[in-house]
Design brief:
By secondary structure, this protein is α+β, with helices and mostly antiparallel strands. It is built from eleven helices and 19 strands.
Length: about 550
């Protein structure tokens, strides 16, 4: 009997072992599915930016309003002699310049740097094409140089320790704070002479804090027989907080970029730095309000804001619909946010910036911190150059204070759409000739990205055309933005995009009437006067 029982046990063990070694197909599928789920990220991605992201956008609008011409700039490698911070400071600086040029097109970085030890694909191809004359590099006008000038560890320190001990217990409490100071020095130089401009520099410092708190509790058992060893219990709870150097260096880089660009362009850059929404209390209070709202309340609040700004024409019911998700994605892309289509914290903060401000006693106040509150703009909370929401901004490049022109002057129009969509622009000259100027053969795509300027004609392209004011009188441009393409719904003569005069049109009124039937949509126009002058050959838009 014992032998049979042992055999049965061995067979059962062998069967179990065989199952564990050779899993079935269903077990494999379950394992793969479970592994896939476990590898999913816990949170959605967000844009990497400092608290000066709004300051960079403010500088972009300021440079556009001041009609600062496009400047080619080179950026040198920003080294770290201390070796404490492993950050790509040069790339952060390039990103800051790019964010200050979305609307203004004020800066273009010439990306050319030879590294003999680490040749990448672009460097290798550029080197080959340069020798054959197939690539023409434009010489930068200015360059940025500098370094992470110092990194002093533990220059700020606070430590507090408290302990209580009795015959049977030990209790301890410890808290400490250490601060590392990092400095960034940048300079602006002239490429022609390789000399640095006096006063065109930026030197700022920031403190990176590292702190921790711990609680220790210990106890000993007493009253036990002598032949039993004394028992003890030790319990410790600790929490460490490290701010990290990356965000501090990005903040210093953004601040230095704003300062250097402001000095170079001679604009009041300080207006884009010293406004209340850069206050640390702003982010903390916004986070608290955001977490107090339910998901449904966040969707309702977003719909109310988008409806008030003219971007959401449908019912405000707080429903999470595919149409509203697409609208949120376009809004996020236009405002340099991660286009997730959800109401995350960075999107909520951007939506609320027009409705939140600081009171006289330094407290944050909002007219609409909840979904049911009154929707009312708080004007002092934004910089003075913030454009109205949902407006198609149209301006003439090179005309800072007026729109007056003279015969023979080139007409260059800058259009900044509030959101991503399909852009159509039409030009009426002083001779009552109407032409479609966007899209055009040199700029065939009708899609325009929200918040990014479209220049017509694109003078930086390889095949630009020219629009000249050839006759004295009144001229104007009309542009319309639609969330969907309208080529099949407009008259064919309105969408040929060949820069030829539209037959039968003497004004832009029929164009306005045609686009006025499509909802939702955003339209804008700009008018100016052309004074008599020395006329040049040609008329209107031509290649």
């Amino acid at each position: 009997m014992k032998t049979a029982a042992r055999r049965s046990a061995c067979l059962a063990a062998a069967a179990l072992a065989g199952c564990s070694i050779n899993p079935t197909l269903s077990d494999r599928v379950q394992t793969i599915e479970q592994a896939t789920v476990e590898q999913a990220p816990l949170v959605t991605p967000t844009k990497s930016a400092s608290v000066l992201r709004e300051g960079l956008a403010c500088m972009d609008r300021m440079l556009a309003s001041e009609q600062v011409p496009t400047t080619l700039v080179a950026v040198k490698t920003i080294p770290d002699p201390s070796g404490l911070f492993s950050t790509a400071t040069k790339d952060m600086l390039v990103t800051a310049l790019s964010r200050m040029s979305r609307t203004s097109q004020a800066f273009r970085v010439v990306d050319y740097e030879i590294d003999a030890l680490r040749q990448d694909t672009v460097q290798a191809i550029t080197g080959l094409l340069l020798t054959s004359g197939q690539v023409e590099l434009q010489k930068p006008q200015i360059y940025l140089s500098g370094s992470i000038s110092f990194g002093d560890k533990s220059v700020v320190g606070k430590r507090r320790t408290l302990g209580v001990s009795t015959a049977n217990t030990d209790t301890g409490y410890t808290t400490d704070l250490l601060g590392t100071v990092v400095g960034l020095d940048l300079h602006l130089g002239d490429m022609n002479t390789r000399t640095l401009y006096p006063g065109m520099d930026s030197a700022n410092e920031a403190v990176v804090a590292t702190g921790g708190t711990s609680v220790e509790i210990g106890a000993r058992a007493t009253g036990l027989p002598k032949h039993i060893y004394r028992l003890g219990l030790q319990y410790e709870v600790a929490a460490d907080n490290n701010q990290g150097a990356g965000s501090a260096i990005r903040l210093l880089t953004d601040l230095a970029a704003i300062e250097l660009v402001g000095k170079w362009a001679r604009v009041p850059y300080w207006d884009c730095i010293d406004y209340e929404q850069n206050h640390p209390e702003f982010a903390r209070q916004m986070r608290q309000w955001y977490e107090e709202l339910s998901v449904a309340d966040r969707w309702l609040l977003a719909q109310r804001v988008m409806h008030a700004e003219g971007n959401w024409p449908d019912e405000v019911n707080g429903m999470d619909t595919p149409a509203f998700r697409k609208l949120i994605s376009r809004y996020q892309a236009a405002n340099d946010l991660t286009p997730t289509g959800t109401i995350n914290f960075e999107t909520y903060t951007k939506l609320m910036r027009g409705y939140v401000g600081m009171t006289a006693d330094g407290k944050l106040r909002s007219e609409v911190k909840t979904a049911g509150g009154e929707l009312k703009h708080y004007a002092p909370g934004l910089p003075a150059n913030t454009p109205p929401p949902g407006v198609l901004d149209i301006s003439l490049v090179g005309k800072r204070e007026s729109t007056a022109m003279t015969v023979g002057e080139a007409v260059v129009v800058r259009v900044v759409p509030p959101s991503t969509g399909y852009l159509y622009c039409y030009y009426q000259d002083a001779g009552e000739v109407v032409s479609q100027i966007y899209p055009n053969p040199a700029q065939p795509s009708a899609v325009a990205q929200g918040g990014r300027a479209v220049t017509v004609p694109d003078t930086s392209g390889s095949n630009p055309f020219l629009i000249e004011a050839s006759k004295a009188g009144a001229e104007q441009v009309y542009c319309a933005l639609s969330p969907r393409p309208l080529t099949s719904q407009l008259p064919p003569t309105f969408t040929k995009a060949d820069l030829q005069p539209i037959a039968g049109l003497k004004s832009l009124d029929p164009v306005r009437a045609a686009f006025g039937t499509f909802k939702p949509g955003v339209a804008g126009e700009l008018k100016w006067q052309v004074a008599p002058g020395a006329a040049k050959p040609g008329q209107g838009a031509r290649k």
